[in-house]
Amino acid sequence: MLSPETRDLPRLLKRQLNLDLTMLADVDHGVATSYVALFCIPDETKVHYTGLGYDFGHRHESTKWMLPIPATCVIDQDRVVRGASVEPDFTIRQEPSHILATVRKLAVAKVVDLIH
After folding, report:
1. Could you report the per-residue pLDDT of 55-87, keeping only the tens digit for each?
2. Whole-angstrom Cα distance, residue 84 to residue 37?
């Protein structure tokens, strides 16, 4: 899992939700920027969230208030993207069954390659 969250936030989230996965911090939004999956938070939204006590700049260790666009990518061992889902609405996520189907296809292809 890749997130702009820094400091202890990824570890706390992993512990609170009892997640068994590797969490990586996208410091300065480098990965999101390289995939062009990022947007700047508008000033009026920034004012709203600041009023609620959120400071995304501090939380993400960045001078800019930006958020990644939620995306799921399946990347093979050769670093080729074999499956992707990008959805600006963070409430809509790719079905886990679709992700697993892509991973299973890659695993079968790897076995076939090993046999030949």
Report:
1. 888 888 887 888 889 899 898 888 899 999 999
2. 12
Q: Distance between CA atoms of 73 and 7, rounded to whole angstroms?
A: 24
Measure the CA–CA gap between 47 and 53, rounded to whole angstroms. 10
Distance CA 56, CA 64 (A): 8
Residue recorded with tokens 């990965």: 31
Task: Write the DSSP assignment of 48-103 as a string of letters.
Answer: HHHHTT--HHHHTT-SS-EEEPPEEEEE-TTS-EEEEEE-SSTT----HHHHHHHH
Helix (H) or strand (E) holding 8: none
How is residue 22 written in tokens? 């590797």
| pLDDT score recorded for residue 101 | 94
- The Cα 14–Cα 22 span in angstroms is 9
